[in-house]
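To the structural biology subgroup,

Please find below the input and predicted structure for Type II secretion system protein M, which we are adding to the shared reference set this quarter. The sequence is reproduced verbatim from the submission form. If anyone notices a discrepancy with their own records, reply to this email rather than editing the shared folder directly, so we keep one authoritative version.
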Amino acid sequence: MSERFRTWWRDRSQREQRLLLVMIALMAVVIAWFFVRMMDDALSDARERHSRAVVEQAEVKGKVAALKALERGAGRRLEAPVDVVVGQSANEVGFVLSRTEPQGRDRVVIAIASARPQAFFGWLNDLEARGVFPERLTARANSDQTLSIEATMRGRGL
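Predicted structure (tokenized):
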């Protein structure tokens, strides 16, 4: 094989040999450029995947911390039935409950006709700290930038 190549190479004129060497050099440059470009793309993809993984890890750590905080509060007992706790808390914050339907000692269905989103979700956080959690929650936007809320709240520790 190499002998056939040497014969073929010697049959070329000096000009053809130079042109072939230039062509091989240019091909090497193009192949190297494609390789570098491919590695650069792979590196940027890896960096992007890494940054997404870091964000997801932080989110998971935050959720784990929230679950641990909930577990620490698991031993807390409510001082009254859930409907009383929710009603008193709503009055303290200034929400008017348009409907309150107790379903046993540990569950209540409530409705609020109009509540500002920030205030409502802040109130939900306060209730969770007291041991009352939304089991089902439906929020619909009103025309005046408030929410209409229907929720089933469940107490823990009763």
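Summary notes: DSSP finds four helices and four strands in the chain. The first strand starts at residue 97 and ends at 102.

Regards,
Lab coordination
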